[in-house]
Every structure is written in structure tokens, then in C-alpha cells.
Design brief:
Blueprint (H helix, E strand, L loop, with lengths): L14 H12 L20 H7 L35 E2 L5 H7 L24 E7 L12 E5 L4 E4 L6 H8 L11 E8 L1 H7 L1 H25 L2 E5 L4 H8 L6 E12 L1
Antiparallel strand pairs: 1-7, 2-3, 2-5, 3-4, 5-7, 6-7
Helix pairs in contact: 4-7, 5-6
């Protein structure tokens, strides 16, 4: 079978272990909806404690100065250092050729090889990459606004019934969005059966690691192309899956990567 149907992997997984992993993943999901905005909260930490707890470094021995200084190399390759995350996006479109160049590090260098531009445990590649238009002005090669990257084939698979970007925007952003208008979103979604049949519980960890590898490459490629970007997690998994037409019991959104130009 040259082109496996995606549910073929389900023949080879341990159902109990798989269900337990899905249940664990669901514990980290947000439910963001107008109906719950006055009755749900992420935490009850006051502002001063929040400032104290975020953005700091962790010391194993906080009361002991068991340290020596790190020499900074001023000649470090600037291409290996990232720009800061974008605070507010301008409403500007990105040429589609630039988008193709943006995802270039993810594709297979050789169409006859399964190896891609990032590491993957067991070469199973459980992360699926979806490139989505977020504005009507954004140049796009087809009426459908969501494309699925096929890294080995070097093609975009067109997601059917994805013409309405309003559904996608609602799924990605809450009503309190204050970050402007990104041009596109790249959504990293783990197809868990693809890694789970071989590595079981550990496959979930490998999917998380792979998502980090991919968005780091995209982050650096944004800098090269003069684009701004920001990782985004304030969404509800099931709404993301519904907007793409994916089964949320098989596909797990790991992160949304917003890309555009700074305001």
C-alpha cells in the first residue's frame, strides 16, 4: 500500500494505552467560549505573585552562589538567534511564494527519502502541518483556505470545505484578541496513532518534541524572510479540529504559529 489511509494505524495500537493518553491530553485543553467567560478562569494568582513567578530563571541552589560566568561569543551566527515574538500584527498580506519559502526547511531534501529537515523519533513524523489563510486579502492559490503540507511529496493537500475563514478565525482566537491581524496561521497537529503504535506512551512525548523542533525552524525562517511570528495556545482543541475537518480523537492540536508583519 503506497498511500496509507490515516486510520490504518489504528490496527496496530494498544487501545487502552491510547485512550489513557487521549484522556491525559484532554486535561491540558482550554474551553474558550462566550458562554463560560464569566464562570471559568485559568488561575487565581494575583498580579504581584504572577510577576514573581514568570520570566525568571530556576536555580537549584538559590541561597548559594555556586556559579561561574559564561563568555558571550560576539561572533555568533545571527541566523541562529531568533527575533522576539510579535506583540501586534499589521493587516498585510504575504506573497504565497514567500509562504512556500517559509516552510521549505520542513520538506524532504530528496523526494526518494523519508528524511525531513527536522529530527523525529523512529522517523515516524507524527506532526501534521496545516497552513491557513487568516485574511481575505491574503493571496492564496485556491478557494479553500487551509492547506496540508506533504513534506515528502513536496505538495500541498487542499483541505475540502475550508473556504470560510470566519470559522477558522473563531477557532483560533477568543473574543478578546488584541494582537492585530496575522496573515497566516501554521497549525501543528499530532496524528497520535502514527507514533503510538511503535512507542506507546512515549510516542506522545516524541510528538511534543517534534512540534518544538518544527516551530523553532519556522521561527528562524521567519527572521530570514523578514516576517514576524508568535506562538499561540489560547484555543480549544475541538474547535480547531472542527474548522479543519479532523477527528479530535485522533488529531491533537499542539500549537498554533501566527505569522505576518509587525504593526
Amino acid at each position: 500500500m503506497k498511500k496509507l489511509p490515516h486510520d490504518y494505524y489504528l490496527r496496530f495500537i494498544d487501545p487502552l494505552a491510547y485512550d489513557q493518553t487521549i484522556q491525559f491530553h484532554a486535561k491540558g485543553n482550554f474551553t474558550i467560549h462566550e458562554a463560560f467567560k464569566n464562570s471559568a478562569a485559568l488561575h487565581f494568582i494575583n498580579a504581584s505573585n504572577l510577576d514573581e513567578l514568570t520570566g525568571n530563571e530556576l536555580r537549584i541552589y538559590p541561597d548559594m552562589e555556586l556559579c561561574f560566568p559564561l563568555k558571550i561569543d560576539k561572533d555568533v551566527d545571527s541566523n541562529l538567534t531568533r527575533n522576539e515574538s510579535c506583540e501586534i500584527f499589521a493587516r498585510r498580506s504575504i506573497p504565497f511564494d514567500t509562504i512556500k519559502e517559509l516552510i521549505n526547511p520542513l520538506i524532504s531534501a530528496n523526494s526518494n527519502s523519508h528524511k525531513r529537515g527536522y529530527p523525529s523519533g523512529g522517523a515516524l513524523y507524527p506532526i501534521e502541518v496545516f497552513i491557513c489563510s487568516l485574511t481575505h486579502e491574503q493571496p492564496w492559490p485556491c478557494r479553500e483556505k487551509i492547506l496540508h503540507l506533504l513534506p515528502q511529496s513536496r505538495k500541498f493537500e487542499v483541505i475540502q470545505d475550508s473556504q470560510n475563514i470566519d470559522n477558522l478565525i473563531t477557532a483560533i482566537f477568543s473574543a478578546s484578541n488584541t494582537i492585530g491581524t496575522p496573515s497566516i496561521a501554521i497549525i501543528y497537529i499530532a496524528y497520535l496513532p502514527k507514533t503510538f503504535f511503535k512507542y506507546r506512551y512515549r510516542g506522545y512525548r516524541m510528538a511534543l518534541m517534534e512540534a518544538g523542533s518544527i516551530y523553532t525552524l519556522i521561527d528562524l525562517q521567519c527572521k530570514k524572510l523578514g516576517l514576524s511570528n508568535r506562538l499561540w495556545s489560547a484555543y480549544t482543541d475541538t474547535m480547531i479540529c472542527k474548522s479543519i475537518g479532523l477527528n479530535p480523537g485522533l488529531f491533537l492540536p499542539m500549537c498554533v504559529h501566527l505569522i505576518g508583519e509587525s504593526a
